Queue: 2 jobs
Job 1
Amino acid sequence: MSAPAAASVGGATAPDPAAAVDMSVRLTAPAGTVDLAAGVLTASGCAAAGRELDPYLDLTTLGGVVTKTIMRGARSGRPTPRMAETPSGMLNSIGLQGPGIAHFLAHDLPWVAERGARAVVSVAGEDVEEFVDIARTLRAATSDDGPLGRPGTDGGVLAAVEVNISCPNVANRGLVFACDPGSAAEVVAAVRAATDPRVPVLAKLSPDVTDIVAIARSVLAAGADGLVMVNTLLGVAIDVDRGAPVLSRVTGGLSGPAIRPVAVRCVWQVTAAMRAGLLPTVPVVGVGGVRTGRDAAELVLAGASAVQVGTVTFGDPGAPARVRDELAAVVRHHGLGSLAGLVGRAHDAVRDGGHP
Amino acid sequence: MSAPAGVLPAARPAQVTAPVVVADRLGGYAHLVIADPVLAQALPGQFVAVAVGDRQSSMLLRRAFSVHRADPAAGTLEVVVAAHGAGTAWIAGRRAGDELDVVGPLGTRFVLPPAGGRVVLVGGGYGSAPFAWTAQAAVAAGVRVDAVVGAGDADRLCDVDGVRAVVGAAGGQVLVTTDDGSAGEPGRVTDALARLLEEPVPTTVAACGPMAMLAAVARTAAAAQERTGAPVDVQVAVEEAMACGIGICMTCVLPVRGADGATRMVRACTDGPVIDAAAVRWDCVGAHGASVPADAVGAPEGGAA
Ligand SMILES: Cc1cc2nc3c(=O)[nH]c(=O)nc-3n(C[C@H](O)[C@H](O)[C@H](O)COP(=O)(O)OP(=O)(O)OC[C@H]3O[C@@H](n4cnc5c(N)ncnc54)[C@H](O)[C@@H]3O)c2cc1C
Ligand SMILES: Cc1cc2nc3c(=O)[nH]c(=O)nc-3n(C[C@H](O)[C@H](O)[C@H](O)COP(=O)(O)O)c2cc1C
Ligand code: FES
């Protein structure tokens, strides 16, 4: 590795946007494929439904807007404080505040469609029925002759469904779906069955598990077309002056650059299992602590076909577009013409004898 | 300027890297003048969100500051900064010639009454930062202005001279209060406000300061309205902990009653910071955050206190 050149990539030097790098990514569904313009997307809960970011970047140049997780009804979320800044990160306990699926379909998704951008719609439920209900409602609203374009294809706003299984399963003693291979598989199978077969279904996994490969195996067996890794890690911050927890509900999800090594590890482990033939091979979307193109490249080199940019967008609303350009520069630095060429390369380096 | 500030359209916000052209003090606060043509279009009541440190900073979140003054002709925006925690200490330490990464102008603005109307400005601590400028806009629009400037102690009073220069020159009253009596009259801003509201004329109150003060201002205004029979419209610029300032994170919410009578947890950064005090569910707003009223839209069954 030539250190001096690498040091200029994704850092202070602006990448040359004219130099062509194919940044697109293809997702596959049981009855179709979806080509995203770029393998860089927003992350759920860190972009609302896209509209608020419009002044700061061109949403049509991203792979898509991953929406805040939508549930069936309106949800008020948790009391405040819901946020605590931590070193290179933050804790949040929003509690999935949102207007519900009907409002989302009437107001938010049409805006994304009108803007010419694409949406990956994140869905969740407190039980399997709620997941199914939302998936069905979404399918009905994005039918072929509807105003939102044909689902799954280049014409339509709906690029994929992301199943957020990081919420507690009320039917199962509040155990988080993503922490139990059985519940995780049940939800993913149900959403897959209720979703248009041309639309990929992605399962978003929690890093707060002992064996992420086991969870990945169960959701892939249940029909997930891709994996998104990772959601936030559970944490607590205490206000030392007050001698009390900062967050109203004590615990919150940790995100931001502080968690990047965990995200890279999860992508690495699951990709290694795929390469070893222990899991079916599907696209992995890396998320966790991406601040620069070099950060995104870590996830890609570990096996991610695409990345999402989350918390960093709060401080730098143009970040998703910047990360895309910086990531293109890393691809070019490696002498490659496409993002796809970079995927999983760090595994090859290990196989070929590790570090020079 | 003939139209009241409140009727001007808000500028589309932008993320800019802008130079600090003046860094000095305003009483106990740091005062920064930032040069940028987009930020300079801010209106009274709006805020900006300032990044801390450089791209490698471990403090990822922006800090919000109400706009002290914006001058579209000069292309400048000014903020007043209290060095409170690590982030504001860094921002307060900027010098002329340094650059800041700023997003703005953000949020809603004060809506002044039409010409011939009356506004009373109430600022607590650095909450009075926008009021010399707001008063200027009001005077220019033919609105009568009085003001209360208060703080815990003399050191935390903000821009009393600036407010006096504008309000006093226009014939209005400026009352100064401190909790400990170290300057002005001893007591709370609401004591002074109650006196200014004895006059039975329709009044707009524009208030900015800590949440507890805003709640007390709302109560004081409601009591005055009952006593005199003259309507008092209270607009408060709320200060909720904000992670993004642009409406994407949902951290800054507080319970507010909508036009339909239903309470929702609304975003202070995009639906505010200036909101109608009568719509805020003050019963659910405390010193360290807000609870979700049991009757709020989408509240968990049985409420989430
Ligand atoms: C609309 C608005 C206008 C403001 N105007 C001014 C102003 O004119 N002058 C001024 O000095 N300060 C102002 N503040 C408060 C200032 O933004 C906070 O003091 C600051 O965010 C706390 O940051 P810190 O680095 O000092 O503290 P830390 O404790 O290090 O802050 C950590 C994090 O918590 C958040 N946070 C904690 N407390 C608050 C709070 N009370 N309000 C908002 N965010 C908080 C911060 O955004 C930050 O992300 C304003 C805040 C808001 C929301
Ligand atoms: C304020 C906030 C809200 C979030 N809301 C959701 C959500 O609704 N659904 C979801 O799947 N993930 C949610 N996440 C997790 C992010 O999508 C992402 O997985 C995580 O933050 C790690 O990425 P990051 O470090 O780039 O932020 C949220 C994160 C934050 C910080
Ligand atoms: S601060 Fe992020 S939504 Fe208001």
Job 2
Amino acid sequence: MISPQSDLELEERGTTAGTSYLAEGFTIWSWLSTRDHKRIALLYGVSITLFFFLGGIAAALIRLELATPQGDLVTADTYNKLFTAHGVIMVWLFLIPSIPSVLGNFLMPLMIGARDLAFPRLNLASWYLYLLGGAIVLWALLVGGVDTGWTFYTPFSTMFSNSHVVLCLVGVLVVGFSSILTGLNFIVTVHTMRAPGMGWFRLPLFVWANYATSLILVLATPVLAMTLLLVGIERLFQVGIFDPALGGDPLLFQHLFWFYSHPAVYIMVLPAMGVASEIIPCFARRPVFGYRFMTYAILAIAVIGFLVWGHHMFVSGQSVYAGMVFSLLSFMVAVPSAIKVFNWTATLYKGRITFDAPMLYALGFVGLFTIGGLTGLFLAALALDVHLSDTYFVVAHFHYIMVGGSVMAYLGGIHFWWPKITGRMYSEAWGRLAAVIIFAGFNLTFFPQYLLGYAGMPRRYHSYPEEFQMLHVLSSAGAVTLAVGYLLPLGYLAWSLRYGRPAPRNPWQATGLEWQAASPPPIHNFAQPPVVVRGPYAYKP
Amino acid sequence: MSVPFRLLPLDGAQSATRLDSLALCLLLLTGVVALGVLLLMIVFCVRYRAASTASREHPPAKGRLVEISWTVIPMLLFLVLYAWGAVDYVSLYRPDPAATPVFVVAKQWMWKAEHRNGRREVGQLHLPLGRPVRVVLTAQDVIHSFFVPAFRIKQDAVPGRYTSINFTPSRAGEYQLFCAEFCGTEHSTMTGKIVVMPPAEYAQWLAAGPRQPGMAARGFALFRSYGCSGCHAAGSSVHAPDLSNLLGRRVHLQDGRVLTADEAYVRDSILVPRKDIVAGYEPIMPSFAGQIGEEDLLAIIEYIRESGHDQPTERP
Ligand code: HEM
Ligand SMILES: [Cu+2]
């Protein structure tokens, strides 16, 4: 990407351009007041990991409860609060911020050759907002929890739930502002801070993906904020926006909610696609196949993703014609997703492939995302959705996309850029082992849920008819495996911080600009702004 | 009910069989695609692993033709699947004049049903074999969802509106009814039983057991006591539309729209009379919102449905 000459220069400067960002002050205050995008990324990383495991504990309890058909482990009320906690934490406190706020924050400036994000203070502020929102959500859970599900459907949430709905809404609202700020920051950064020579079609796909995600964040999150405000107002003052007894319309809530929450799915998965698009070319030693098509696909997903919210409402009583339009659009959004899968596969063709841990995660991502995406077609096909919606088929589908897709890619990205972020190498053997365990555990957990769903098991059930037990037991066994798989990286990555061998500047011989900076990078990334003379992915097999 | 687990739930309705074929078709198609992609990935991974000596001459960086074909072919396939799903979907919801309506009110946490002759039941729903039925749904508190896996149907019951779904039971027996939309603490116990019986047995069942006067008869009494007949009766001096045989009729509205009168339209006309003004009439009807309960509304609608016939009849 850099001409060979400046490559050399940079390498020299990289080693002399000052202390690494990690060594730049060791006090807690130096972290809490930092404006360095790399340190902020780590702050996000630590807090997001914490929430991931909290959400995971709730998942474990849910699966334990469902191992037997009678609801005998926890009461129905506790169960409902558990899956709400699980959903709220995983969606708002883990999935939406994970890749953009951790990897995106760390890498976007490095990848485009910038010294930092456009608004470093705003970046820090958005972390504080995230933390504040997260704390409010936890507070709501500690004082008694919420039992509405993460979807907060009215009029249950506004009139009938006796739990801490408003507090939880406030938490989610605050986290939403944090997303908006991050999105704005990324957009302005990509527009104004690209290094000389870094044209739009020289941007790495990870940058494209985060850019498109930021557009969605900025355009859709305000609708969520408005919706949550309306729910809060309705709950506190009974004004009759969503409650039919007061002249309101419950379907209005669903339209508003999914207008944000469907694009939110793309907020979770587009950055994941970006990560896979960096890792696969590197370990296949091939430029990504059809770079331009890949960028168009990203943009198409972002745009069409806004127009399909009604596919969550095929049996809600919305008009049959609306259903038909939303179904058609949903099939159309599957096309660019399919293109991406085909292109990743084609990238392997005539490559020189090695199977290091990041590559295993990325390949796992492609496999699971493919299954999740294809089962999405079942849900988009109107008449089939009538049978499948609100069953475990849906639970399986969204876990394949969000957990199989986003979490796999997030882990792949963490492994890929770990040497750059920390300056240490982790144990490759452990990394591969964990990737394999996670892949196996994941499929054992969630594949049975497709079968359960088709057989008629409704979701959000605390107890269920006996005939479904066998598949639930399989699923719970898978969850144990998966939990082990998720705990492993925590161990060996932490180990590497102390005992890992120091990472070279570019351990994977990757061609992205970020690998031109030292590992870990100095505080302002590059001593001199790099000059870009080539497109990304200049790999040779 | 202790039933053995079946991957494909029993198909208890005509639409279920059709739906299973759509699902099978999709499964084959997506299965072929998934296996194809997986196989290619494995083949590439093995053939082009770093240690292999396979030729890497002329690696393609892009291929217009393949890219266009793998964009256009899925798109065309998707269109076919879309059309199939959409046709079946519409047939679940298109008003079917031959279908017998059954009225179901959902509330935390039970299903209450009323048949046209006034026979009521809770937590169960008896249906005739081989006859098209239309379940008309509403909810008293929060959103619930009427889900019968054996029929492959599901429809939300939304407070403040009527929704409905058509199907024809095709196999006698007992089936699970679930609530599929999270509705509060006891959501998972909001289940029920659908009993499909041969028509003769069903007629017997309908005639026996606890019931109110026929729904239409009760509706007629209500129609009079709420004062509807003052304007809508044949001899009335007020200029108001004649309601006989209204359900299923096409109605021209003041603003040029035309719609087919269904339960939801009648309900709105009673509660929000200014929403749809019939062409040629003054908007003088008062709203009855807050005065008539859900079950009375259903009875009045039933009376209007029957009023086209000379006598309120009780068809099984
Ligand atoms: C060991 C891993 C996991 C297990 C066993 C698990 C299990 C479950 C189960 C059983 C439900 C359905 C509850 C119900 O509908 O009754 C559920 C819902 C959900 N899960 Fe997970 N989950 C896991 C990991 C995750 C992760 C990592 C995420 C996101 C990153 C996630 C996101 C969600 C969401 C958004 C819901 C919907 C919650 C709702 O229905 O309100 N899950 N999970
Ligand atoms: Cu319910």
